[in-house]
Amino acid sequence: MAEYGLIILGGGPAGYRAAEIAAKKMRTLLIEKAELGGVCLNSGCIPSKTFLQAAKVADYCAHGVRYGVKTSEADTEHAAVVARKTKVVRVLTAGVRSALKASGAEVCKAEGYIEGIFDGKIIVSAAGERHSADNLLIACGSETAVPPVKGIYEGMRAGRVITNKEIFNLPEPPRSLVVIGGGVVGVETASYYASAKSKVTVIEAAPRLLGATDGDVADVITKALARKGVTFVTSAMVTEITDEGVKYSGATEGFVEADKILLSAGRRAVLSGYGLENLGVATDKAGIITDSAMRTNVKGVYAAGDVTGRSMLAHTAYREAEAAVNGMLGIPDEVNYDAIPSVIYTSPEGASAGIVAAPDDPRYATVKIPAAYSGRYVAETDERDGFVKLVADKERGILAGAHAAVPYAGEIITTAAALITLKTPLKEAKKLVFPHPTVSELLKTALDAL
């Protein structure tokens, strides 16, 4: 039986980041049954961004005349987009493998199973062999939530109902696509396929799309998708999936034809199939329960990434992995969830960090700066509904929230998130110098307005 300082179950962002840093300090084994990189790299973040870049290029070409450039009608070559996505994923997974090899981590491509704790050692079996470890990091990720809808499993077996695993490998754009769920995955997918000339309908149970996002950001993105031809049905529940499409009910009942139906109504932590029950680890409806240092209720057992259900984002998983490994090494560390940035990679992008404050909340001061205040924004786009919004904590004199709906929002939000995390006094934050002309200057304008 091989002995390790750390065994990791799952090779997604949390798993491979933990392995990369832990292997430099202790013997580390990473067990992954599929491909390294997890959902993010193989069927989520990276494939979708590759698709969305193609959509952005196609949209620019289609409207080139706005910028004094004559172009013929743009046409997305979907097969070429899929091929490029496959190449991008291959390059990045190779990079992960290379980094793990350089770190000294051992990788086992197999299904891992937790047998339990014996004589103070955690025992995990994989590929017919048993391994022991002082520490275990559970990073088994999440899976698509399948709502209890009539006909949904029949549709999945027939290939009409698909998930993120299949949507980025379709040989051609469907003539009509219904997206169940108007969250980030749903709107990003809708954005690409609308550019690829699919007839796209998004059905969302809530009154608006992107429910957890700042309302103004959601409004700008919804309008941008509508201009691309996306249809929205909100405050509606899907009641049945048939051979022809989707039935729904809400304020009214309706039916939408669909060649393909994408499930994007949420994800759930993977908690079964690998012996978690043999440890007595506490869980709730979201996932494995941990403290801010990623410790579970069982000594030596940690969890990070989507399996905790706290913040299902790859960059959160990286930070959680770092905190977990530091804890194993006796280095005090905790994850601060107050200002983790999130990005919606539509066109324009949406991004947020920190709190979403109600307009009438007396504890906060809010400023909203139109994107037209940025010279670069005006030079690069004809749209005029973008903005940057900052929320300040009046009593403490610090930034508490930031929200943006502009090009490059995903790059800009990092500065705001850093100011929130570090609790930088506003009088100091206002001394930052931003390059000109950039869209990021809107942060400076907003800080000055606060």
Can you offer a commentary on this structure?
- It contains 13 helices and 22 strands.
- It has 450 residues and is of the alpha/beta class.
- The strands form five sheets. Strands 1, 2, 3, 4, 5, 6 and 17 form a seven-stranded mixed beta sheet that branches. It has a five-stranded parallel beta sheet with strand order 8-15-9-10-11.
- The model has no long low-confidence stretch (mean pLDDT 96).
- It has helices at 13-22, 38-43, 45-62, 78-103, 152-158, 164-167, 184-195, 215-227, 314-328, 375-380, 409-421, 426-429, 441-449; strands spanning 2-9, 28-32, 106-109, 113-118, 121-126, 129-138, 142-144, 161-162, 176-180, 199-203, 231-233, 237-241, 245-249, 253-257, 260-263, 267-269, 301-303, 342-344, 349-354, 364-370, 387-393, 398-406.
- Helix 3 (45-62) crosses helix 7.
- 32% of the residues lie in helices and 25% in strands.
- The radius of gyration is 23 Å and the shape is globular.
Q: Nutshell version of this structure?
A:
The chain has 450 residues and is of the alpha/beta class. It contains 13 helices and 22 strands.
Structural class by SSE content = alpha/beta
Remind me, CATH topology of the largest domain?
Answer: FAD/NAD(P)-binding domain
At the fourth level of CATH, the homologous superfamily of the largest domain is: FAD/NAD(P)-binding domain
CATH class of the largest domain: Alpha Beta
Give the mean pLDDT.
Answer: 96
Low-confidence stretches: none
Helix content: 25-40%
Into which percentage range does the β-strand content fall? 25-35%
Molecular shape: globular
Q: What value does the Rg take, in angstroms?
A: 23 Å
Number of helices: 13
In CATH, the architecture of the largest domain is 3-Layer(bba) Sandwich
**What composes the largest sheet?**
7 strands, mixed
Total domain modules = 3
Write down how many β-strands occur, each being a DSSP E stretch of 2 or more residues: 22
Gap between N and C termini:
61 Å
